[in-house]
Design a protein that fits this description.
It is a single chain. This protein is of the alpha/beta class. Helix 1 packs across helix 6. Helix 3 links the parallel strand 7 and strand 8. The chain contains seven helices and eleven strands. Strands 1-3-2-4-11-5 form a six-stranded mixed sheet, with helices on both faces. The chain has a five-stranded mixed sheet with strand order 8-7-9-6-10. 44% of the residues are buried. The radius of gyration is 18 Å and the shape is globular.
C-alpha cells in the first residue's frame, strides 16, 4: 500500500453506532482513504477494517478514533508514537511495527488498470516499459514491482502521487491521458471507480503480485502496542466465529477471505 508533507487531518470519526463513555482510553488509528478498507471518517460506512476495530476494541473497553491523513505521514506518526496504529498495512509497508497474529483482510496490492480503449496487458515487468505508470508514495506493491518503481523513480515512466485521496487523483490523470496505467489493490480501485461513476471507462489489465494479508499495525513507539495487537487478533477469531465479521464485510459487498479454506 501507501508521505512527509504537512500533516492534514481531514476528519475524526467516532463510530456512530457504538456508544463510548468519554472516560474510555482512546486508540487512534490513521491512514489515507483506501475504501472499502478505510473510507471517510464521517460516513456510515467508514471501511470494514474501521468497523472491525470498533467492534473489537469497544468490547475490550477502548474508544476507537479514526483519522484520515496521507499514508506517509501516518507511517511517520505511527513510528513516532503520536498515533497508535495505521490501518490497511502490508508487512512491507511498516517494518518494525507490531502486527497482530491474525490479519484484518487479504488484498491484492498490485492490480493494473488502463483506460477502457487500451489494449495493453501486463505480462511481466518489461511490459511496463511501454507505459507511464501511476503509483502512490510509499505504497507496498510487492517486491518485484517495488523494485521497478525504485529503479524508474527519476523517470517519466513512474509518476508518484501523494495526499489524502491519491487514487482518485491517479484515476483522473489516467482518464485525462496523463498516465497510461494505474496500480492499486483491485477491490479498492473497483470501489472508487464505481463511486466516481467511471467504472465503464477503465479496464483491468493484469496483476503484478499475488494477494497479501493486510493489517491494522501498531506503533513500535507505544508500550501498549503488543497488548492492542493481541486484543485485535483474538477479536478477529470471535468476530468470525459469531458471524459478525461476515455481516461487516457484507456491508461492503465482500466475503470472508478465509471462506472455503
Amino acid at each position: 500500500m501507501m508521505k512527509p508533507p504537512v500533516l492534514v487531518i481531514l476528519g475524526l470519526f467516532l463510530l456512530p453506532r457504538l456508544v463510548f463513555p468519554e472516560d474510555r482510553p482512546e486508540i487512534v488509528i490513521a491512514a489515507d482513504q483506501w475504501c472499502p478498507i478505510n473510507c471517510l471518517p464521517d460516513s456510515d460506512r467508514p471501511g470494514f477494517m474501521i468497523e472491525i476495530a470498533g467492534e473489537i476494541f469497544n468490547e475490550a473497553g477502548y474508544r476507537v478514533v479514526y483519522r484520515l491523513m496521507p499514508w506517509s505521514r501516518a507511517i511517520v506518526s505511527g513510528r513516532e508514537g503520536t498515533i497508535n496504529a495505521i490501518v490497511g498495512a502490508y508487512r512491507g509497508d511498516a517494518p518494525g511495527f507490531v502486527f497482530p497474529r491474525n490479519e484484518q483482510g487479504r488484498i491484492g496490492s498490485a492490480a493494473l488498470f488502463t483506460r477502457a480503449g487500451s489494449d495493453w496487458v501486463y505480462q511481466d515487468l518489461s511490459s511496463l516499459e511501454q507505459v507511464r505508470l501511476g503509483t502512490i508514495l510509499d505504497y507496498d506493491y510487492g517486491e518485484s514491482l517495488n523494485g521497478y518503481i525504485e529503479a524508474h523513480s527519476q523517470s517519466y515512466r513512474v509518476q508518484v502521487m501523494t495526499g489524502n485521496d491519491p487514487l482518485a487523483k491517479n484515476i483522473e490523470k489516467l482518464l485525462r491521458g496523463r498516465i497510461d496505467v494505474v496500480v492499486e489493490a483491485k477491490p479498492v480501485f473497483r470501489y472508487l471507480s464505481r463511486e466516481m461513476g467511471v467504472e465503464g471507462e477503465v479496464r483491468h489489465a493484469g496483476e503484478a503480485a499475488p494477494s497479501e494479508d493486510a493489517y491494522i499495525a501498531f506503533s513500535p513507539g507505544v508500550e501498549s502496542s503488543p497488548e492492542y495487537a493481541r486484543i485485535l487478533s483474538e477479536g478477529m477469531e470471535r468476530l468470525r466465529a459469531s458471524g459478525e465479521l461476515a455481516r461487516i464485510l457484507a456491508r461492503y459487498n465482500l466475503d470472508d477471505w478465509k471462506t472455503g479454506e
